[in-house]
C-alpha cells in the first residue's frame, strides 16, 4: 500500500510538502505537476478520515444505528453510503444495541471525532438526546423518529397501521392479536399501534388482545412459541416483519398452517417476506428514499441552507399468501 512517505521519497520532497499538496495548500506549480504525476502513477489514495480530523471542514458523516442485524437500518445505510460516496463524503457507523444511553454517548463521541454531521436512527428521543444534539452544535437528523424542533425524516406510521387494520377487517376478521413493542418507541410502539387500533375499532364487535414483545427475532420467537397453542385470534398483526417471521417459524414448529388457522401480517416490506412460505402480507416502507433524502438534507444543512424540519414518507400495503378472507 502506497503511503505519503513513499510519495515524498519518490518526488524528492519533504512529507510536509506532499501533505500541503494533498490538502490544497501552497506548492510550486513544478512540484505540483510532479506530485500529480506520481500520485496518478502509483494510484495513491489519501486517508480521508485522517484528513478530516485535521481539517476545519470534515467529510465524515457519523451514523448511529440501533442494531447490526436490523434489516430496515441496513437498507437505509446502503442508500446513505451510495449518496455520500457520490458527494465524496465518508460514512462512519456506530452501533448501540438499542441502548438509549449508548445513543447519547455516540452523539458526543462522533462529535469529538469531528464528523461534519450525524444521522441518528434513535430508538427513543429523550431530553438527554435533545441536550446532546444541542451541545455538539453540528447538524443532526433523526431517522425513523421525530421530536419538536429537531430535523427528522419519518415513515407515516399511523397510515401504515391504519392500512393493515382496515385491510384485516375488510377481510371479515373480528378477533385479533396484536404483537406490539414498548411504547417508548414512539414511531412503532405508539403511532403504528394507534393506526392499527383505530382501524380495528371502526369495525363492530372486534376483540383485540395486545401483547408486548421484542424487536429481535430470537426473543420474539421464544415468547411466541409458548403463546401460539392457546391463541384464539383469527388474525395476528405483528408490529414488524421480524416479529411476523418469528410467528411464522413458531407456527411451522407447532405444525400450525397459516392462513388456515390464522392470518398473519407485519410491517416493513423485508425482502425475506417474499421468499418464505407462505409469503407474508406486509406494509412496504421507502427505505431507499429515506436514505436519499437523509443525505440530501444533511448536505444542505452543512451548506447552511434551509430544509424541512420534518419529512414524512409514504408506504404501500403488499398483500401476500399469509392472509385470507373469512366467509
Give the mean pLDDT: 92
Share of helical residues: 40-55%
Low-confidence stretches: none
Counted up, domains total 3
* SSE run: HHHHEHEHEHEEHEHEHEHEEHEE
Count of helix runs: 12
GO molecular function: DNA-binding transcription factor activity; transcription cis-regulatory region binding
Keywords: DNA-binding, Transcription, Transcription regulation
Pfam families: LacI (PF00356), Peripla_BP_3 (PF13377)
InterPro entries: HTH_LacI, LacI/GalR-like_sensor, Lambda_DNA-bd_dom_sf, Peripla_BP_I
Can you give keywords for this protein?
327 residues; 434 Repressor (Amino-terminal Domain); Rossmann fold; 12 strands
Task: Tell me what you see in this structure.
It contains twelve helices and twelve strands. The protein has three domains: 4-46, lambda repressor-like DNA-binding domains (434 Repressor (Amino-terminal Domain)); 54-155 and 287-313, 3-Layer(aba) Sandwich (Rossmann fold), CATH 3.40.50; 157-285, Response regulator (Rossmann fold, 3-Layer(aba) Sandwich). It is α/β, with parallel strands linked by helices and 327 residues long. Strands 2-1-3-4-5-11 form a six-stranded parallel β-sheet, sandwiched between helices. Strands 7-6-8-9 form a four-stranded parallel β-sheet. Helices cover 45% and strands 17% of the residues. The model has no long low-confidence stretch (mean pLDDT 92).
Concise synopsis of the structure shown:
The chain has 327 residues and is an alpha/beta fold.
Secondary-structure blueprint of this entry?
Blueprint: H1 4-11, H2 15-22, H3 29-42, H4 48-54, E1 60-65, H5 71-86, E2 90-95, H6 100-112, E3 117-120, H7 127-136, E4 140-143, E5 151-155, H8 157-170, E6 175-180, H9 186-201, E7 207-212, H10 217-227, E8 235-238, H11 241-253, E9 263-265, E10 282-285, H12 287-302, E11 310-313, E12 315-318
Parallel strand pairs: 1-2, 1-3, 3-4, 4-5, 5-11, 6-7, 6-8, 8-9
Antiparallel strand pairs: 10-12
Helix pairs in contact: 1-2, 1-3, 5-12, 6-7, 8-9, 10-11
Amino acid at each position: 500500500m502506497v503511503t505519503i512517505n513513499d510519495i515524498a521519497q519518490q518526488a524528492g520532497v519533504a512529507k510536509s510538502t506532499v501533505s500541503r499538496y494533498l490538502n490544497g495548500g501552497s506548492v510550486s506549480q513544478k512540484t505540483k505537476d510532479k506530485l500529480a504525476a506520481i500520485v496518478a502513477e502509483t494510484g495513491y489514495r489519501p486517508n480521508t478520515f485522517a484528513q478530516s480530523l485535521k481539517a476545519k471542514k470534515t467529510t465524515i458523516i457519523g451514523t448511529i444505528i440501533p442494531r447490526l442485524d436490523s434489516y430496515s437500518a441496513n437498507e437505509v445505510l446502503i442508500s446513505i453510503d451510495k449518496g455520500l460516496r457520490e458527494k465524496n463524503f465518508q460514512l462512519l457507523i456506530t452501533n448501540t444495541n438499542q441502548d438509549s444511553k449508548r445513543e447519547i454517548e455516540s452523539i458526543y463521541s462522533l462529535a469529538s471525532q469531528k464528523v461534519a454531521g450525524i444521522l441518528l436512527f434513535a430508538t427513543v428521543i429523550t431530553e438527554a438526546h435533545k441536550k446532546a444534539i444541542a451541545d455538539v452544535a453540528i447538524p443532526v437528523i433523526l431517522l425513523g423518529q421525530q421530536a419538536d424542533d429537531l430535523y427528522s425524516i419519518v415513515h407515516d406510521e399511523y397510515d401504515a397501521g391504519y392500512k393493515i387494520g382496515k385491510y384485516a377487517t375488510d377481510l371479515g376478521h373480528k378477533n385479533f392479536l396484536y404483537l406490539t413493542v414498548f411504547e417508548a418507541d414512539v414511531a412503532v410502539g405508539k403511532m403504528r399501534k394507534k393506526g392499527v387500533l383505530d382501524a380495528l375499532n371502526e369495525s363492530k364487535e372486534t376483540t383485540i388482545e395486545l401483547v408486548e414483545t421484542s424487536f429481535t427475532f430470537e426473543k420474539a420467537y421464544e415468547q411466541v412459541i409458548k403463546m401460539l397453542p392457546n391463541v384464539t385470534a383469527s388474525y395476528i398483526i405483528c408490529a414488524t416483519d421480524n416479529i411476523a417471521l418469528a410467528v411464522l417459524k413458531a407456527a411451522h414448529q407447532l405444525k400450525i398452517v397459516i392462513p388456515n388457522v390464522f392470518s398473519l401480517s407485519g410491517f416493513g416490506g423485508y425482502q425475506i417476506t417474499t421468499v418464505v412460505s407462505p409469503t407474508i402480507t406486509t406494509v412496504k416502507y421507502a427505505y431507499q428514499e429515506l436514505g436519499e433524502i437523509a443525505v440530501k438534507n444533511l448536505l444542505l444543512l452543512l451548506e447552511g441552507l434551509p430544509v424541512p424540519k420534518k419529512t414524512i414518507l409514504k408506504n404501500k400495503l403488499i398483500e401476500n399468501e399469509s392472509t385470507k378472507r373469512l366467509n
